[in-house]
Amino acid sequence: MFLVVSLLASVVGAICGIGGGVIIKPVLDLLHMESVAAIQFLSGCTVLAMSAYSVGRSALSGERQVQAGTGVPLILGAVAGGLAGNRLFSAVKAAAARPETVSAVQAACLALVTLGTLLYTVRKDKIRGRQVQSGYLCAVIGLGLGLMSSFLGIGGGPINLVVLFYFFSMDTKRAAANSLYIILFSQLSSLLVTLLTGAVPPFQWQALILMVAGGVGGGVLGRALNRRMDSRAVDKLFIGLMSVIICISLYNLWQYTA
């Protein structure tokens, strides 16, 4: 089950540029397959593996969809956001009376973010995008994306695409490529902090190996499919996926607060 969930999630994540964690995290929460902290860690590692593969292959093949003027500040902001999100998760976990409370907070945040993303995606043709060029503003945007990515344990998910659509007027495929860079560096910074502070939760090594394998395998398949699909097909897949995630998140919120 760990392998199947991570593989399918990473295929869709690589196609849409949402990293797979936005599917892995709520599904594993739904199935109660590990503790809250372990699911957060496993999901982050899987997303990191998938995004590292996708970004690495793109770099080796000479695909340039990230502009230095906006991409570098976004990535630097995402690194800082990844560190902040890791600290925020630890603070919420320490303050919560029960582990389920942390999952409930994450589920509520994910449902709201995903709903907003779905509404924007459906109406984005009627919303005029912007062309942000300020390096400072790019860094602030990256900071917010990295923080949410790390705190929710979703890698970046749908909010990355919406922000890139609106603030930079990117099409779906270019936004997906930029999103993967943000996911890679925010998750890498979060993982390094977890390792250096000795905050790695108990988890099953077999699950980690299978999920990372599924993440990389999903990245391979997803990248191949992405190159065969146009932006309209990616949009349709993205909208369908957002609807499913909202339903799962709301159910998880209900079961953790019932």
Count of distinct strands: 0
Strand content: under 5%
- Report the structural category: mainly alpha
Enumerate the spans where pLDDT stays under 50 for 5 or more consecutive residues. Answer: none
Number of helices: 10
The overall average pLDDT, rounded, is 83
Sequence of secondary-structure elements: HHHHHHHHHH
Using the alpha-carbon principal axes, give the shape: globular
Measured between the Cα atoms of the first and last residue, the distance is: 26 Å
Count of folded domains: 1
Biggest sheet architecture: none
Radius of gyration: 17 Å
Helix share bin: over 70%
Can you characterise this structure?
The chain is an all-alpha fold and 258 residues long. The protein has one domain (2-257). 81% of the residues lie in helices and 0% in strands. The protein contains 10 helices and no strands. Helix 3 crosses helix 8 (172-196), helix 4 (68-95) runs parallel beside helix 6 (135-152) and helix 6 (135-152) packs across helix 8. The chain is globular, with a radius of gyration of 17 Å. The model has no long low-confidence stretch (mean pLDDT 83).
Indicate the topology.
Layout: H1 2-16, H2 21-31, H3 36-60, H4 68-95, H5 99-123, H6 135-152, H7 157-168, H8 172-196, H9 205-228, H10 231-257
Helix pairs in contact: 1-2, 1-9, 2-3, 2-10, 3-8, 3-9, 4-6, 4-8, 5-7, 5-10, 6-8, 7-8
